[in-house]
From TrEMBL:
It comes from Draconibacterium sediminis. One of its GO terms (molecular function) is metal ion binding. The keyword Amino-acid biosynthesis does not apply. This is (4Fe-4S)-binding protein. Residues 59-88, 89-118 form the 4Fe-4S ferredoxin-type domain. The lineage of its organism: Bacteria, Pseudomonadati, Bacteroidota, Bacteroidia, Marinilabiliales. SUPFAM superfamilies: P-loop containing nucleoside triphosphate hydrolases. Pfam families: CbiA, Fer4. PANTHER family: 4FE-4S CLUSTER CONTAINING PARA FAMILY ATPASE PROTEIN (PTHR43534:SF1), MIND SUPERFAMILY P-LOOP ATPASE CONTAINING AN INSERTED FERREDOXIN DOMAIN (PTHR43534). Keywords: Iron, Iron-sulfur, Metal-binding. InterPro entries: 4Fe4S_Fe-S-bd, 4Fe4S_Fe_S_CS, CobQ/CobB/MinD/ParA_Nub-bd_dom, P-loop_NTPase.
Length: 292
């Protein structure tokens, strides 16, 4: 069983479109959307949910103002400035700034502050037309997204073992944050999607540095390579200098938008289009030759 994680240094590079295309090409695979903060692979794969599970994203504090003595201890102690004085002159907690550290609860001299587990998050096991998918939904501003990625990846591996799947394909998050770190740990290979722009290469370099720290193999695709052929050559030189195999280049095409509006991958929408054939070649390189 091989686990392939598709990542990009920045948003908008085309990572999810490529992940969906590879999902439609893979046989006997389990899919996992690791971009839990802004999941969108489901827009193309249209999963039918089989199981729903809650996820605790952290603790939230609440002040019982009927018992509060207004001593000000919590206001002074909160380093996140999550506690403010409301219009009634009593301390109140802003749930979007509260980090759930429990310090105010511990320091309150009359025990009027209580914390509860925030369960405004869920993860799912679903069927898609290509196979099983594990994905999640987090509320705005929720915490522990990296822990959630770890949880759904564990489940994807469990399902892959049970179903004797040959591949796990992860649509990872952009950037180098906690969710990216959780997506890289223990994967067999990273497929890096790079946009040939200054910011695209800059952010890709940061991501390469992160992936290398985990000693995970990296392969690269330059997406929208024809928007700046000179800079595409610069990206290609960077990949050569850093021993990163370039498995394919994909031109800019409005067809990606058309297929998304049709809720299909490009390979489904136009199977004989040159880009679809290119993606098939890329998948063959990754699945058969590039990952050991």
């Amino acid at each position: 069983m091989k686990e392939i994680t598709i990542l990009s240094g920045k948003g908008g590079a085309g990572k999810t479109s490529i992940a969906a295309a590879l999902a439609s090409l893979a046989r006997n695979a389990v899919f996992c959307d690791n971009d839990v903060d802004a999941a969108d692979l489901h827009l193309i794969l249209k999963p039918k949910i089989k199981e729903t599970h809650p996820f605790d994203s952290g603790s939230l504090a609440f002040i019982n103002q009927e018992e509060c003595t207004n001593c000000g201890t919590c206001l002074e102690a909160c380093r996140f400035e999550a506690i403010f004085t409301n219009s009634d002159g009593f301390p109140e907690i802003n749930p979007y700034q509260c980090e759930g550290c429990l310090l105010c609860e511990r320091l309150c001299p009359v025990g009027t502050i209580q914390t509860t587990q925030n369960r405004n998050n869920q993860w799912f096991i679903s069927d898609t037309r290509f196979g099983l998918m594990v994905h999640a939904k987090m509320g705005p501003g929720e915490e522990n997204s990296g822990k959630l990625v770890t949880r759904i990846r564990e489940k994807a591996k469990e399902l892959a073992r049970e179903n004797k799947a040959q591949f796990i394909i992860n649509d990872g998050p952009p950037g180098i944050g906690c969710t990216a770190i959780s997506s890289i740990t223990g994967t067999n290979a990273v497929l890096l999607v790079i946009e040939p722009t200054v910011s695209g290469l800059h952010d890709a370099k940061r991501l390469v540095e992160l992936v290398n720290s985990f000693k995970v193999s990296i392969y690269a695709i330059i997406n929208k390579h024809d928007i700046n052929l000179e800079f595409t050559a610069t990206v290609a030189r960077y990949l050569i200098d850093n021993n990163i195999p370039l498995v394919g280049k994909i031109p800019f095409s409005e067809m990606f938008v058309e297929c998304m509006l049709s809720e299909k991958s490009l390979v489904e929408y136009a199977p004989n289009h040159p880009i679809s054939l290119n993606l098939k070649t890329i998948w063959e390189k990754i699945s058969k030759n590039s990952i050991h």
